[in-house]
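Dear colleagues,

As part of the handover before I leave the project, I'm documenting each prediction I ran so the next person doesn't have to rerun anything. This entry is a single chain, and its sequence is reproduced below.
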Amino acid sequence: MAVMPEWWGGRDLRALLPSIFFEHFRTTSFVAEYEEGLVGFLVGFLCPTHDDEAYIHFVGVHPSWRRAGLARDLYGRFCELARADGRRSVRAVTSVVNHDSIAFHRRLGFVLLPGDLEIDGLPATAELGVPGGPIVRFELRLDDAGDRQEPVPSTSSSADRRG
């Protein structure tokens, strides 16, 4: 959690990721390390309310590791885990101001879900108490993902490929 302000350009988003997530979602979350240092993480879970959905709650990649395929690899591993559990979709959210994240999700095949307002042409959802304000919600259908590009886990880690 200490890396979050640095990785998000000074935005302090630690309140969105309390340590309890790391305790209770350990089996559905991933950490990427290189030379014993943290370079990325994904915190996700299999939705207990909707047994056909999985949810990616938070993903972070060290700024110097962005565009190296690490986030795609983390998403791919999570999608593989979700699919193996019989989940048919993966959902995620990001701040409406995080244009890089929105573009990343779209490249992976996530579609924008309807919201209760529109900001800069995007369907957004008002979220009180969330730093950055409104969010954009996404969904990736795993049952028809073969019809479009999807995150594909690799046999070697992105850290190995970056070297």
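Residues 146-163 have pLDDT under 50 and may be disordered. The helical segments are 4-7, 20-24, 70-84, 99-107, 158-162.

All the best with the project,
I.
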